[in-house]
UniProtKB/TrEMBL annotation:
TM helices/strands, residue ranges: 12-34, 46-66, 78-97, 103-124, 136-160, 166-186, 219-240, 252-270, 282-299, 311-335, 347-367, 373-392
Similarity comment: family membership: Belongs to the major facilitator superfamily. Bcr/CmlA family.
Domain Major facilitator superfamily (MFS) profile: 9-397
InterPro entries: Efflux_drug-R_Bcr/CmlA (IPR004812), MFS (IPR011701), MFS_dom (IPR020846), MFS_trans_sf (IPR036259)
Compartment annotation: Cell inner membrane; Cell membrane
Organism, as annotated: Stenotrophomonas capsici
Main subcellular location of this protein, as a coarse class: membrane
Domain of life (superkingdom): Bacteria
Name of the featured protein: Bcr/CflA family efflux transporter
Length: 406
């Protein structure tokens, strides 16, 4: 029975992680093609950055809807609909011949890309709780972390074999495969009797009650700011690799392999810690790694006469390990706050992360990616903000426990 349960855990983890991958994969796969697209369409670096920020903005806006739709219509139906829209939008990107058309279809990609990531977490919590839920969330995080790391590498390879349009045709093929597998293998985990109404008044009330909940805000900001330090480097990948490290389009692995290695190890450690180490202690360990990474990164960039690999990317491994260690615990804490509205709660958490990422990609990355030290300081401030949110949460929980019942 135990062996069968473990097989089921791995199967669900692999399926949900695959669904979670296509959204972030589509963000990063296009990075190596920036020079080629810009040259063909007459777009400068700032204009090319909007290929990312438009995607993230529409991703963030629609993320508020995906979870509520899944609470009302079922998880599987909404995921299938999102995949169909993503496939059509990816075809539109591949066929675009001007910047306006490309940005339009990138926006449509963003509208649909969040279904797997957002609803997948609700699927996990529908099926499992306690230590099993943390193990499964950690396995998903470990597989999910592969997407932003391998995307630019695959994008660079595709550029070597074809033009930039090949990246979007690859996304069409990948999301079509996911659609087939979802139709065949994904169970419906949210039965009709548990579904909620789509009445606008009730939805607005649900959104508002979550948005103004101080505990939700602390946990959501702890997660979004923690990941924000990593995403600053991900969004700045073209400038970091091509301009600061003076590498070429086929060497994006120098940024993403250290990141994926740290995230995979951190997610694995989080899963192994479930049932062995208290969640609060695991989070403290994660923040310790993030603090060491921040101090090293600032010191290296301030003192090194010239940035070079592997030393320039060592901090990313330490930081991503810490982020991956804490993120499953923060996500489960949020989902457990709203057992009947897990999809909506997952949407609100994703919205917090995606708005943060959109600001990073559209505003902070162009400003900070001009020097390694600026990126290091920015990443450190994100880690500090995340740690302060978690500290606030712990103080609030202790105060609540020590308050006598009325």
């Amino acid at each position: 029975m135990k062996a069968s349960k473990q097989v089921s855990l791995r199967r669900i983890a692999a399926l949900v992680a695959g669904l979670s991958m296509f959204g972030p994969f589509a963000i990063d796969a296009v990075f190596p093609a920036f020079p080629q697209i810009g040259a063909q369409m007459g777009a400068d670096k700032l204009a090319m950055q909007q290929v990312i920020s438009v995607y993230l903005l529409t991703y963030a806006l629609m993320s508020l809807v995906h979870g509520a739709l899944s609470d009302a219509l079922g998880r599987k139906r909404v995921i299938i609909g999102g995949l169909v829209v993503f496939i059509l939008a990816s075809i539109g990107c591949a066929l675009s011949r001007d910047m306006g058309s490309l940005l339009l279809f990138r926006g449509l990609q963003g509208l649909s890309a969040g279904v797997g990531y957002i609803i997948g977490r609700a699927v996990i919590r529908d099926l499992y709780d306690g230590d099993d839920a943390q193990r499964l969330m950690s396995q998903v995080s470990m597989i999910f972390s592969i997407a932003p790391a391998i995307a630019p590498i695959i994008g660079g390879w595709l550029l070597g074999w074809s033009h930039w349009q090949g990246i979007f045709w690859f996304l069409v093929a990948f999301s079509t495969l996911l659609l087939v597998v979802t139709c065949l293998w994904l169970p419906e985990t949210h039965p009709p009797q548990a579904r909620l109404s789509l009445r606008p008044a009730r939805l607005a009330q649900d959104y508002w009650s979550i948005a103004v909940n101080p505990r939700f805000l602390r946990l959501a900001l702890a997660g979004s700011l923690g990941f924000g330090g990593l995403f600053l480097y991900i969004a700045s990948a073209p400038a970091f690799i091509l301009d600061l490290l003076h590498l070429n389009e086929q060497q994006f692995a120098w940024l993403f392999i250290p990141t994926i290695g740290g995230m995979a190890l951190g997610a694995y450690a989080s899963g192994r810690a479930a049932g062995r180490i208290a969640g609060a202690r695991a989070v403290r360990i994660g923040y310790a790694f993030m603090a060491v990474a921040a101090v090293y990164n600032i010191a290296y960039n301030a003192l090194a006469p010239q940035m070079s690999v592997p030393w320039a990317v060592l901090a990313l491994t330490l930081n991503s390990f810490g982020v991956a260690l804490i993120f499953p615990i923060l996500s489960l804490a949020i989902l457990d706050m709203y057992p009947r509205q897990r999809g909506t709660a997952s949407s609100m958490q994703a919205f917090s992360t995606l708005v943060t990422n959109a600001v990073i990609a559209g505003v902070l990355s162009p400003l900070l990616s001009r020097s390694g030290l600026s990126l290091a300081i920015g990443a450190a401030l994100f880690a500090l903000g995340s740690g302060l949110m978690w500290k606030w949460e712990r103080i609030s929980q202790r105060a609540q426990r020590n308050t006598p019942a009325a």
